[in-house]
Design goal:
The chain is of the alpha/beta class and about 210 residues long. The protein has a single domain, classed as Glutaredoxin (3-Layer(aba) Sandwich). It is built from five helices and ten strands. The chain has helices spanning about 10-20, 85-100, 120-130, 140-150, 195-205, and strands at about 5, 55, 60-65, 70-75, 105-110, 135-140, 155-160, 165-170, 175, 185.
């Protein structure tokens, strides 16, 4: 699966049309994130993020705003993703373990970019294998596209001549949302877990930071 890095949608669309090599935009990332050391400088985004409503893995309406008071890690992926998604979910499982008691004040959300195949029931079964506390979200293709646009997430269906039918190229970042529902940081794929722990703890301990 091809990983699409976080880019402005207009630029991303142009690169896709040109078939160009997509590079990672540095905005929202810290140089120390790959190494897992150094302080984390939280960001304030005026053009990315916001509340949304989807269907959760229990087939019930879900709003991001229902989690106010908790830190949130938001990730966009799909269940038959062969690499990025399972890797990220394993890392988020480790993140929860490393948070200790603070894990109770943090929620991982997995938003499917393949609503055609990822039913609520399948999301629940799949995510439980990683951590029963993870919550899967889906919706109509139109609603998923709207939420993805809010978070500047790119994804595109890629047809395959295999039993899989198709794969989905998608952004690989994870989004840190604070206790007020505001996006505060974008973690690049494979960011070191200790650095992510610092980010979650910071939004929990210093909500005004």
């Amino acid at each position: 699966m091809k990983v699409i890095r976080h880019l402005p949608l207009v630029l991303l669309a142009a690169l896709l049309l040109l078939g160009g090599c997509i590079k990672e935009e540095r905005r929202g990332y810290e140089e120390g994130s790959k190494e897992g050391h150094g302080d984390i400088g939280l960001q304030r985004f005026t053009d990315i993020g916001g509340d949304f409503e989807l269907i959760d893995q229990n087939n019930k309406p879900f709003k991001l705003s229902s989690l106010k008071g908790k830190a949130v890690i938001l990730f966009f992926g799909y269940l038959t993703c062969p690499d990025v998604c399972p890797t990220t979910l394993m890392e988020l499982k480790q993140l929860r373990e490393d948070l200790g008691r603070d894990a109770e004040r943090m929620q991982v959300l997995f938003v499917s970019v393949d609503p055609e195949r990822d039913t609520p029931e399948k999301l629940k079964d799949y995510l439980t294998n990683f951590d029963p506390a993870f919550l899967g979200l889906t919706g109509t293709p139109e609603v998923i596209a709207k939420v993805a646009q809010q978070y500047k997430v790119a994804y595109s269906r890629r047809e395959q001549r295999s039993s899989m039918g198709y794969t989905v190229d998608h952004s690989a970042a994870s989004y840190l949302v604070d206790t007020k529902g505001e996006l505060r940081y974008i973690f690049a794929f494979k960011t070191k877990i200790p650095f992510m722990v610092k980010g979650v703890k910071k939004v929990l301990e210093y909500p005004e930071a």
